[in-house]
Each structure stands twice: as structure tokens, then as C-alpha cells.
Amino acid sequence: MESLAGVSVVVIGGGIGGLSTACYLADAGADVRVIEKNEQVGGRASRLEQDGFRFDMGPSWYLMPDVFERFFGDFDRTPSDYYELTHLDPHYRIFFKDGDQVDITPDLERTKALFEEYETGAGEALERYLEKSRENYEVGMKHFVYEDRERLRDYIDLDVARQARGLSLLGSMQGHVEGYFDHPKLQQIMQYTLVFLGGSPTNTPALYNLMSHVDFNLGVWYPDGGIGAVVDGITELGRELGVEYDTDRPATEIKGRTGGFEVETPDGPVRSDLVVSNTDYAHTEQNLLTPERRGYDADYWEKRTYAPSAFLLYLGVEGDVDELAHHTLVLPTEWDQHFEHIFDDPRWPDDPAYYLCVTSETDDTVAPEGHSALFVLVPIAPGLEDTPEIRDKYRNMILEDIATNTGTDLRDRIILEERFCIEDFANRYNSHEGTALGLAHTLRQTSLFRPPHRSKEVDGLYFVGGDTTPGIGVPMCLISGDLTAEKVLADHGGGLEP
Question: Locate the Amine oxidase domain: which residues (predicted)?
Fold first, then answer.
């Protein structure tokens, strides 16, 4: 492997992508420093600890275990060197708002039987769907995720065409799922993972049916200690490789080019040969670079489709919440209106779909004895008006909805409550319009249509994270770190030009 010995790199932002890039660059010999504006690294995968309760503030599903194994394997480690995994059973529980309830378990035969209860032949259809999903996953990951095809000519290749033959590349997820299942509840079960991609059934490409392979075949896991334990593991790996971390140190401006960068901070400049930005792409370009150094203008960012923001309640409650599983989804029988209120007619949804994460069902270290720790996440459109009065009203509505549809009334048992919403995403993570995830995975914002890892205007400046390829989510950001490091090595692996 080419060496970066003698090359200094500052990584702006300690999210998953930045932490990943730092590990790869340090392993290649670079002198790497991560600077993070907040009090802890992790980015959107931050932790909240208060009064004996501990919450993952953002990502909470451990999916695609093969990606984590590959990441740590790149450094001759395994995930178990840093954290242990528990296979969740059930993977998740769904409460439909018409009173129906289902558990999706690791037992595929049981799931097929469940599908048959809703629609004759649906069990066999599920098998066929998952086979297609497995094919899309295996080919897509190998040839289109781990390989960064950033130019159109990278796709105009016979080998690429052969690999892509048969993949569900075009069309929407809604159309793809309708080809297998008629029952609306089965369609919802097959599409709930789109929330992790920041899309809807009608605007997400059918290729992402590969997420069903992730769900049903690879399984849903819990890292002991939560996603925060994964952040700790990646950070510790970085330290072992020589990465240094500065928290509470926001970047305010990026000056210079290859070999002569200065990243301004309130504590003085950080000098380096190269810069990798893990802050949101739009924030870097619009706030850290002067206009002539930007690859995209403000109009570009205003015309993008953004993933949802979220209304979050972090709750410490007295007693158990046994009606709820570790991962619990509450879905209206018709969820089209909720997606419309995110993407087409932005407003606070009247009858929302939402998610509850109850880590205390699996991990007794996240709450004091005799108590439960959970959070509620309602996807909402970014950029909405976000006031204390609106939060109060929505908080009361959601808690009532939980009591009505799950049988769990939390209202008189809450002893700790914190809220997080659009303004908090914007302030804590510098996210455009308070999006919780970044650029959505629409057909026009997938693969080569996402912003590149190399700056278009500044030599020596690189980007990593959910706005670049391969996209949104902890596993994808880990891979993004690898792809960005590959670009740095390709450009400077033989050392800097004198």
C-alpha cells in the first residue's frame, strides 16, 4: 500500500465517517488529528447520559454486521475486540393503529407463516423477494458500494453492465414491492427501512430492496452498550493507530490548499497538509469556504431533496414497559399522508408513523434498577417551524398515541425527559434545515449523483459522510471513510509534491 508517512491531515468532524477516515489514513502513515465542535465524538451517533440513564441520541439499529467485520478486519481486528453483540428476538415489533400487532423474529419460517395470514401465497412471495434482495445486496455492495463509481463513464463498461444485469436499479420501491405483495401491511413491513435511507416508498429507487436482505437475512443486532459502544470502539482503534482527537473545537474557516492548510478554530488555527471534512457538505461549502472556493452554490443546496428531520423524546420512566420490544414501530394503516407531509406538503403530521427504542429491554446498564430508558422518534420534514409551544403540543399528542396504540401509558411515570428537534439538529450538527440524516436517497441523489469525495475547487480538500457515496447510515459512513481515504492515497500516497 502507498504510504502517507510525513503527511499531516486534519479531519473536521468526529462523526462515523470522519472517525473511519482517520483510522484508514493513520494506518497508511499519516499524522491525523480529528477536531470536533461538540463535547464528544460520534456526530449524530452521540450519547446522552443523565441521572443514571443513557441514550443513543441518533442511530440505534445495528444492521449490516458484515460491514463492521470488514472495517475492523481491515486493521486485523474484529468487532468483538471492542464490543459484544446480541441478536435481537424479536428483531422488532409493529403496532398498527387499527389494533393489529406483529413481531418480526429471526425465524424466517415463522415470518413466512405470518405473511400467509395476511395474504395467500405471501410466504412464498417473501422467499422470492428475499432472494432478489440478497442478489441485489451481494452484487450491489461488491461492485457499486465498495467501488466508488463517481463518473458516468465508470458505468459505461461491459463488466459493470454484466454485474448490473438483473439488479432492480430503476423504478420506485413502492412499485417493486407491489410486484410481490398486495396487502398494504405487508408492503409497509417491507418498506419501513426506507426511513433509515431518508426516503419514501415513492422516491427511493427499487435497488434499495437490498435492505430487506439486511433485515431478514443478516439480522438485527444490539452492541452491548449501544451504538455509543461502537463509536468508542472505532475511536479506540484510531488511538491505537495514532489518531489524536480534539473535542469542543469547532472549525470556523478552511484556508489554503495542499501542503498549506489552516483550519481556523476559536482556539487558534490547526495547520495541516490535507483536510477531510466530515461536517455536512453544505455547511462546509457555505460556511467554511469563501464563494470562489465552493464546488456548489447556494441554489444547488436549496434544490436538493433532504432526508427527514425528527422530533425526539428521550425518556427515563419508572417501572417496566413490557408491551414494547427493543425496537418498536407504530404505524398508521395508511402512511402515505405522513410521507406527503415530509416530502410534498411539509407540515407536522397529524397521524404519524413513529419509532420507539427501548434499550433497557436488552441492556440493564442504561437505566437505574426498576426503571426503563427509551426514546421516541417521529420523522418530520426539515425546515419546519420548531417552537417550544409546538413541541409541547406534539409531545402530548405522541404520548397519548403511544398509550392508545401500544397499551403503554408513560405519562405519569416520566422522571427524566429531554427533547431534540429541528433547531437542535441545525445547532448541534450544522445540518441544513435541521435534517437528521442529510441528502435523501432519491434516484437523482444516488451513487454518482451525490457530491464527490474530492472538492471540486480546492486541491487537498476531501469530504466524507452521509452526503457523499455510498450514503446515509452508520455502515455506509464507515465505507465512505474507506472511499475517501482511497482518494487521498491515490492523490498523495507517494508523498506531497515538493
Answer: 16-489
